[in-house]
Amino acid sequence: xxxxxxxxxxxxxxxxxxxxxxxxxxxxxxxxxxxxxxxxxxxxxxxxxxxxxxxxxxxxxxxxxxxxxxxxxxxxxxxxxxxxxxxxxxxxxxxxxxxxxxxxxxxxxxxxxxxxxxxxxx
Length: 122
Hints:
Layout: E1 2-4, H1 6-12, H2 18-24, H3 29-36, H4 45-55, E2 63-65, H5 91-96, H6 100-118
């Protein structure tokens, strides 16, 4: 079953107060409440686009797929790209455990990776 999982995007973006973040981004109280409580059944494409713009992500980033027992999708099925993982990465906690001397190196690695993604080799 495909479900929304907005919490992982808020965590990834360091958003500690999703409701406030969404309200400041111009979303309605009703919409922000539904997103915060993960009680969304449907989203208009305009809403999806606005969320992607403010969270700097793609729709796949807040979708999770958990296969049902009778699903016929194999390991090579494209839905596996949004398959829920039991592993939750808390980058802030991880970075807090890194010795200060290594933070500059990690920051440069991240910047290099971002630049590679934004401007891929031609």
